[in-house]
Design goal:
The strands form 2 sheets. A 6-stranded mixed sheet has the order 8-7-6-9-10-11. It has a 5-stranded mixed sheet with strand order 1-2-4-3-5. Helix 3 crosses helix 13 and helix 12 crosses helix 13. It has 13 helices and 11 strands. It is of the alpha/beta class and 396 residues long. It has 2 domains: 137 residues, Leucine Dehydrogenase, chain A, domain 1 (Rossmann fold, 3-Layer(aba) Sandwich), CATH 3.40.50.10860; 225 residues, Rossmann fold, CATH 3.40.50.720. It starts with a helix and ends with a helix. It is globular, with a radius of gyration of 20 Å.
Length: 396
Amino acid sequence: MTSAFEGAMKQLDQVEPYLGKEYARGLKLLKKPQKIIKGKVLGHRAFRVQYNNARGPFKGGIRFHPNINEDEMKALAFWMAVKCAVVGIPYGGSKGGVAVDSSALSREELKRLSFAYADFIAPYIGPWQDVPAPDVNTDGQIMAWMLEEYERKTSQQSPATFTGKPVELGGSQGRIEATGLGGVTVLKNYLNFLSSKKLSNQVTNIAVQGFGNVGFWFAKLASEAGFKVVAVSNSKGGIYNSKGLKIGKMADSFKPNITNAELLALPVDVLVPAALENTLTKDNASAVRAKLVLEMANGPTTPEAEEILLKKGIDVLPDVLCNAGGVTVSYFEWAQNLSGYYWPKERVLAEEKKVLTTAFANIYRVVSQKKISYRQAAFILAVGRILEAMMLRGRI
């Protein structure tokens, strides 16, 4: 199987023909991260990959998962740089994590691990250097612990160093649902732009693979917006009901009646992979019967799988657009921390919707003009913005 980073570089290669020759050297530079930090934290492998900061400070999540590795960290850091450029926020891309099964840790052990990892990356992060955030198996509490350790080491208050914090410590209103809301906003825009085609808001059936924070909030907000969510899944399996699910009541009583593989092949209008990388591959893409794939996870569709889906006439709305709501509100949180002025939730969510709506409109324009995929259009815009910044700085 293609590794995550190999897949990311194939995506980059696909847009090279659409960029000018003056960007050739810059594209070569973009195939390598600027810095890789790796070592051990309490006996576990630990990473922080800082990919590119031409457009602003490095920005990216921290995940605790037993299967993380350097290749995955590089891919996720690259995608974050692209994602921030897609929605036009002034960040670069980074990613970090610890190879650990956090579910096996007590609360005190998780706290010690969080402190130790913050100590490990402290020399490399800061509000104008690299701004971490929660990711898989991390949350606001873990960011709070990391902030405490970072501030202890630097002997100064620095809330803008981490985003995704609890509101009590400078976190932004609306952050918890931000990624899910961004995905629903993109879906609504897609349907509005293609209103005469195959999907309509009132009859759209959705299957969501992955029921963590992102999948839950996407499903909940989509249901509230009038869509019919007929299936959701977690690592144990999925729940399917053709009449629709009551999302708000499912978090406490999850009783699977289908497998994850069966969920991916359901005859729905929209399939939403919202778990981990490489969910849709060349081995299962031909089984997909959805009319649209909306990526809420990072890198859930391999290039080979996307080729199969596109040949079947299935549009793929890419992760670098669909799940950018999280980093957008992280940017708002950072800006609020730096200014010491905090916004009400209504403003946060309204501003997020504006950013995602503008980004979709820009991508749709390129799709229509060049007759290419949504991912190619997103990458053309984003990579062009990154390379332009690198040229202005004299890096190329």
